[in-house]
């Protein structure tokens, strides 16, 4: 109401400013009344649109690109009612089974199915009492409304997307084909068959029993609700009770129908004669039948014994169903109770183990009381859960989004992180640890080496002197201390030690970030590291705690160290290259055959012009050997031998090259 009044006043001011000049010139109000109303309506619409379109953006939130669309929505996501009346919208409409629109539609469909499950059997059994002439139009209206929703649900089921390769399929034609080939389509067709037309021939609601085939849709909604609700155990109990009531309701209707078939009041087992005043009322008939059904299905007994075969068979079936229901009740209720107390049981086991340890080690008195009070505080304030254990099964991106959402207010309070990179902030958020301190606990003492920084989430802390008697300042929610010590800034006059002691007044919840976690995250963000160091130095300068000379010396040393590291990296790269080259040369020397084969292949590919006289010299000795086989001692064909050696000479040349290169590399290494 307050927001509406504010919008109304803003619209009135805007209209007053726009219409001030015109209202002074016009004396006749009636001709200007339509324009006035139009301007008034336009002003109101503009204000409402302006209020709805303006989204307060947080520059700190904008840096978290990892969260994607978690904190802001595009203009395309803004739903307009005018889209509902376009054909394009209905042609391209696809439902995501994991979104809330489909969940709420399933809830509506389940309620319609529940109507048919409960009232169809009731109208069939108590036909004379329920379907009186003045009630028939009402039942017809409800029946055809439910049929209309059945048809709408078929349309929705034909537009349900599914995941394929991690993406939601939105092809309407493909989704429709998948639905038409599924068993759900066959069940839906059977459930909407117009069998109730026979109702006009014979007034019997049994012709509409095919509507109950769609009961699978109600069970599907129960599965969805089990995952969407924040109270799954309570919902499980309610669902179990609903199933039991439906079974008892149907069994009561069967009992009354069998009593009518056997004859009311024919024996002690059937329902009494309804013509009497005591048993003629509809509510009396239904409540009596429901009571009998409860006694039978819960195996309590205390009912008249059956006297006919039909009544005996019905009681046997009821007894078997009752045993199953009884076992189901005990099993499910026990499991639900154990599930509801699982966290409490785990917590109590931890407390008992600590108590046993203190008893074995002789820890009694005030310390034991403090430990037990600490456990009670953590349980009562829901601090007994470990974030890492709870979020262990989620992927890293979702864990980061949840951590950013939970610890966003905490990060705002740290001044040195305001301009940091979003990736670094996400890393730091994931490394925050919650610690709970009891009254009188010291978070840190004066002179301790600073290894952690703290952010006060809830509680009050006192900064005291070394003896704890003098209180310098009191820290409350949102305070930050110890951020300079974790940066390990060179030139700090305190030597990264605590300058005062911090003590918890009551129970305090603090977020802790260790020095190791911070530096592990800064290894991947060198620019952010430089910025943080610069901010830390500025804070130390304000408090006159920075030794400028020591800081400059450290900066020079780090610069020289960086240059040396670069030179070492270059030398290592050169050494690796030389080692690889030497390894190849040694391998070639150990396998000369391989080298000769390579040289032969090169010679064959590139033939020399001196090869023709070589072939003639080869043919000449062959002819001479045929004519004079006995002149072997003279051996005239040995003349081409030196030519063959000349062929081998280029093969030996590549072998000599690696040796010279090896000697050169050795000389270079010796010089280095």
UniProtKB/TrEMBL annotation:
Ranges of residues in domain Cyclic nucleotide-binding: 416-539
PANTHER family, per database record: CYCLIC NUCLEOTIDE-GATED CATION CHANNEL SUBUNIT A
Biased composition (Basic and acidic residues): 612-672
TM segment ranges: 102-122, 240-258, 309-330
Disordered as annotated region, ranges: 18-37, 604-672
Superkingdom of the source species: Eukaryota
GO molecular function (one): cGMP binding
Species name: Mytilus coruscus (Sea mussel)
One matching Pfam family: CLZ
Swiss-Prot/TrEMBL keywords: Ion channel, Ion transport, Ligand-gated ion channel, Membrane, Transmembrane, Transmembrane helix, Transport
InterPro entries on file: CLZ_dom, CNG_cation_channel, cNMP-bd_CS, cNMP-bd_dom, cNMP-bd_dom_sf, Ion_trans_dom, RmlC-like_jellyroll
GO cellular component term, pick one: plasma membrane
Membrane-protein topology: Multi-pass membrane protein
Name the UniProt record assigns to this protein: CNGA3
Keyword ATP-binding in record: no
Subcellular location, record wording: Membrane
Record has NAD as a keyword: no
Stored SMART domains: cNMP
SUPFAM superfamilies: cAMP-binding domain-like (SSF51206), Voltage-gated potassium channels (SSF81324)
Main location: membrane
